[in-house]
Amino acid sequence: MIRYGIVGCGAIHSVHADALSAISGASLVAVFDSSRERCEAAAAKYAVHPAIDLTDLLDRTDAVIVCTPSGLHAEVGIAAAAAGRHVITEKPMDVTSERASALVTACRAAGVKFTCISQHRFSNAIRRTRAAVANGDLGDMVLGDAYIKWYRTQHYYDSGDWRGTWALDGGGCLMNQGIHYIDMLQWIMGGVASVQAQVRTRTHNIEVEDVATALVEYRNGAIGVIQGSTSCYPGMAERIEIHGRHGSIVVEGDRIKLWQVDSEAAQQGKYGGGVMMQPTPSLHLTERASDDADDVTANWGEQHRMQIEDFTRAIVEDREPFIPGEESLEPIRIIRAIYESSQNGGVKVNL
Questions:
Q1: Cα→Cα distances 23→19, 26, 57, 207, 235, Å
Q2: Per-residue pLDDT of the chain (351 residues; tens, 9 = 90+)
């Protein structure tokens, strides 16, 4: 039985606590928060120990889930690793590449397991899409786009003094809300080579951005767009669009909305040189989301459970978790490059 403790009893901690209750071989035994009131409330709800400080929590646990404000993730994670505890952090790993890298290094040096929550990678739709691209089913990649047009009120930002700040939130609609979809996009497309971007603060009284657009060049030569916002009322479903020479896949809300590949043309090289031929409808194989409506891997909370369960198995089996720490550095690097580009008038920034 792997004994877990949760540090930070804000909004997201209950998702982790509920996930742990559904995992065989894992149990939540303690919680800690800088607010004694929040700590005791969470401890009472889940019938666990209300730790008086981080040391008290570490003394009772094998692994720690860090749910503090983003800018404190590395600080808490490094302390946990130094005590020999395995570490999970919520996204982002931290708000700078330097601190995030220091956390990964600390966990490696201590010989403990580490992962950062990127639960959407456990979605069937995302895994299938990545496999299709990796297998060349869509042909040479052309475009890869992510649209995260959400809505947040000013009250949302006012609900915590860390929200919307550079020091503890590390950014706005990209670093907080958009990071999952940026991670999925770069994972599917095989990595980002460069960005050119503009970000703005348009509708909220915050330090960080609430609207952003970036032109992305991928390592495979494809290009694409990342758009993020918390100013798009009433809020739209997040959407990833992947286009190759012979096919397209659209994922919305972690469910496949379009999967269309001209497999015969891809096999015969029908569009490769010579006279361009128009494909006939009979050559198109279209797979729609007939079973996606019942796909539990698209559900909020279930993906967290799957990632924490994988991490628990990684501890028991002494293997790498499905998402090792080094991979979680990439979306932070991309977002920081977007900020750098915007601050310098939209210049191209190479990663």
A1: 7, 6, 20, 39, 33
A2: 999 999 999 999 999 999 999 999 999 999 999 999 999 999 999 999 999 999 999 999 999 999 999 999 999 999 999 999 999 999 999 999 999 999 999 999 999 999 999 999 999 999 999 999 999 999 999 999 999 999 999 999 999 999 999 999 999 999 999 999 999 999 999 999 999 999 999 999 999 999 999 999 999 999 999 999 999 999 999 999 999 999 999 999 999 999 999 877 656 655 443 322 233 222 232 333 335 667 889 888 999 999 999 999 999 999 999 999 999 999 999 999 999 999 999 999 999
Token pair of 134, please?
A: 């990796």
Instruction: Report the distance separating Cα 239 and Cα 125, nearest Å.
Output: 12
φ, ψ at 204 (rounded to 5°): -125, 155
Q: How far apart are CA 199 and CA 190, in angstroms?
A: 24
Residue 178 near residue 148, CB atoms below 8 Å: yes
Instruction: Say if CB 112 and CB 87 are below 8 A apart.
Output: yes
Q: How far apart are CA 154 and CA 176, in angstroms?
A: 15
**Segment (H or E) for 311:** helix 302-317
